[in-house]
Amino acid sequence: QVKVVESGGGLVQAGGSLRLSCVVSGSTYSINTIGWYRQAPGKQRELVADISSGDSTNYADSVKGRFTVSRDNAKNTVYLQMNSLKPEDTAVYYCNFQGVYRSLKHTYWGQGTQVTVSS
């Protein structure tokens, strides 16, 4: 069973930085994409950034140039480096693992980690 665990959230002032970590265990999927999503109060969950097993990355327009997603396969960990944080980045951040096997996608979510940016 795949397990996804996030860490690294917290309270930071505007302009500051945080690094989130997502550890994925139990995966046997060689083809996968790991993404960071966020959900602010009263809003829908949205994709922030993701990275494929081939190291292709994708970013939401609102975070381009400020956030960087990377992965360390030896540690089964994906990172989200967040710089120049803004109050509108405040949300619960979720890690999503999507594995592909025989053309079927299997999705797993972490429990989320709170990021609060004060003005």
Characterize this entry briefly.
With 119 residues, the protein is mainly beta. The protein has strands at 3-7, 10-13, 18-25, 31-39, 46-52, 57-59, 67-72, 77-82, 91-101, 104-109, 113-118.
Would you write up a description of this structure?
The protein is elongated and about 45 Å long. The chain is mostly beta strands and 119 residues long. Strands 2, 4, 5, 6, 9, 10 and 11 form a 7-stranded mixed sheet that branches. A 4-stranded antiparallel sheet has the order 1-3-8-7, with no helix packed on it. It contains no helices and 11 strands.
Topology:
Blueprint: E1 3-7, E2 10-13, E3 18-25, E4 31-39, E5 46-52, E6 57-59, E7 67-72, E8 77-82, E9 91-101, E10 104-109, E11 113-118
Parallel strand pairs: 2-11
Antiparallel strand pairs: 1-3, 3-8, 4-5, 4-9, 5-6, 7-8, 9-10, 9-11
Strand content is over 45%
Topology as a string of helices (H) and strands (E) = EEEEEEEEEEE
Low-confidence stretches: none
Largest sheet at a glance? Answer: 7 strands, mixed
Multimerization status: single chain
Q: Describe the global form.
A: elongated
Determine the structural class based on helices, strands and strand pairing: mainly beta
Q: Helix fraction?
A: under 10%
Quote the distance from N terminus to C terminus. Answer: 41 Å
Helix segment tally: 0
Average of the residue pLDDT scores:
96
Write down the Rg.
14 Å
Number of strands: 11
